[in-house]
Amino acid sequence: GGLTRNLKVRKNSKIINTQNSENTLVGIGFGLMLNNVSSIFFMKQQDFLLLGIDHLVNTYNIIRLNVPKASFTIMPIIVDSGYEGAQSCLNSFGDFCSIARIRGFSCTNKIDTKKIIKKHLISPGFRIIGVSQRLLKQELLDLDIINNGRNENYFQYKNGNNVTIVCFNYALPYGLNLYNKLKAINIRASLFSVNTYSEFDFSPIIHNILKTRNLVLIDDSKSGNLLSDSFLFNAV
């Protein structure tokens, strides 16, 4: 039941239904990885990952000095659908990733989720893959991609000559809505979604901006520490 309902695993793998002890479970995940056992920690709310902050910073800083052969992935739900209590206001996935330069990926639609899961879910090393509660309540977007970054850092869904739309965090539906409204008045837009939370080679997106000479940046994070700010600095 719960977050792993209907989940199927390979032979010799296990699904363990645990109590809510986030600090312990993050520590167990790192411990398993150090012993060459891969694991995935599904958790219902990103906010509670704060309870594992010691492991995310200090334990991971020890692990990163080595080259782990096993995988540890944390998959939290980002509670970003509105106010749902005192412990549901931390929706900025990037803040967690910036704590200790943790690789993070956001899933915003069917195609980016398939590519991110296929390449990163059980690859060696540690990462966090976040899912938006707000988007879970909406119809799953099924988009065609034009291209994407080598490590699924970004995805391009539309190509136009008039304006470049770049979406961060879980803002892709807003960007797609804007794209459709611009298309209705004969303004052709390029549409990108940035799916990671650490700096990468922005040049493919910047090249598109140089072509259109117009930029719309959409970021729905609630944070003062935004990758979109870094992108904007590089773009201008």
Description:
By secondary structure, the protein is an alpha/beta fold. The protein has 2 domains: 2-136, 3-Layer(aba) Sandwich (Rossmann fold), CATH 3.40.50.970; 147-235, Rossmann fold, CATH 3.40.50.920. It contains 8 helices and 9 strands. The protein has helices at residues 22-34, 53-63, 93-99, 110-120, 133-136, 172-184, 203-212, 227-235; strands at residues 39-43, 71-78, 103-107, 125-132, 147-148, 154-158, 163-168, 189-194, 215-219. The strands form 2 sheets. The chain has a 5-stranded mixed sheet, sandwiched between helices. Strand 3, helix 4 and strand 4 (125-132) form a beta-alpha-beta unit. Helix 1 packs parallel to helix 2 (53-63). The model has no long low-confidence stretch (mean pLDDT 89).
Features of the shown structure:
single chain; 236 residues; alpha/beta; Rossmann fold; 2 domains; four-stranded parallel sheet; 33% helix; 21% strand
CATH superfamily of the largest domain: Thiamin diphosphate (ThDP)-binding fold, Pyr/PP domains
Contiguous helical run count: 8
| Biggest sheet record | 5 strands, mixed
What are the low-pLDDT stretches, counting only 5+ consecutive residues below 50?
Answer: none
Number of strands: 9
For the terminal residues, how far apart are their CA atoms?
Answer: 49 Å
The portion of residues assigned to helices is 25-40%
From the helix content, strand content and strand pairing, which structural class follows?
alpha/beta
Domains, number: 2
At the first level of CATH, the class of the largest domain is Alpha Beta
The overall pLDDT, averaged over residues, is 89
* CATH overall fold name of the largest domain: Rossmann fold
Protein name: Transketolase C-terminal domain-containing protein
